Amino acid sequence: MTSANAESGLRKFRFGAGGEGNRDEGGARKFVKLAQTAEEYGFDTFAVPDHLGNQVGPLAALGALSQATDKIRLATSVLANGYRHPALLAKEATTIDVLSKGRLELGIGAGWMKEEFDKAGIEFESPGARIRRLDESLTILDGLLRGEEVNFDGEFYTIKGLVGSPRPRQGPRPPIAVGGGGPKMLALAAKHADIISVATGTTAEGKLRLSDMTMEKTIERVDRIRQAAGDRFAEIELNWTIATIVVTDDREATAEMALAALDQGYPPNIAMDVKLSVEDILQSPYLAFGSFEQIAEQIREVRRRTTMSYVGIFPTQMDAFAPVIPLLKGE
Question: What are φ and ψ of residue 169, in 5° steps?
Answer without folding.
Answer: -75, -35
